[in-house]
Amino acid sequence: MATTPFTQDDFEQLTGSTGITLIDFWADWCMPCHRFAPIYEKVSEKHADITFAKVDTEAEQELAMQLGIVSIPTIMVIRDGVLIFQHSGILPENLLENVISQAEALDMDEVRAKAS
Fold it and tell me: For a Cys staple, 6 with which of 12, 15, 45, 53, CB 3.0–4.6 Å?
């Protein structure tokens, strides 16, 4: 699956559903964002069962502020409506794949129990 644009209007729907959603917060002026984009796109093509979203922080400033995005690129991983990972900076392909593997392996009942 290729990446898809993600807006404030999409946030509740996509992050509140079951499954895994990765969100890449970026901006056109950000050179590290441009270096990370092909990695993110390549990994997205390997995982059709995962939603890979991109948020342009210039167009979606309110969403970025609500989520506390202060550095880009920032990657968030949300599984079954729960934020399980957040990282600012470029992730190499192997580390992004590792994050996905760990997200898939999580016992979400255990995660929810620890969170409450």
Answer: 53
Active-site choice (30, 84, 108, 111): 30
How large is the average pLDDT for residues 105-114?
86
Q: Read off the pLDDT of residues 32-91 as tens digits, 9 standing for 90 and up.
A: 999 999 999 999 999 999 999 999 999 999 999 999 999 999 999 999 988 999 999 999
Active site residue 30: yes
Catalytic member of 14, 22, 23, 33: 33
Domain harbouring 84, CATH code: 3.40.30.10
Q: For residue 65, what are the contacts with CB-CB under 8 A and spacing of at least 6?
A: none
Q: Catalytic residue at 33? A: yes
Our count of domains for the chain comes to: 1
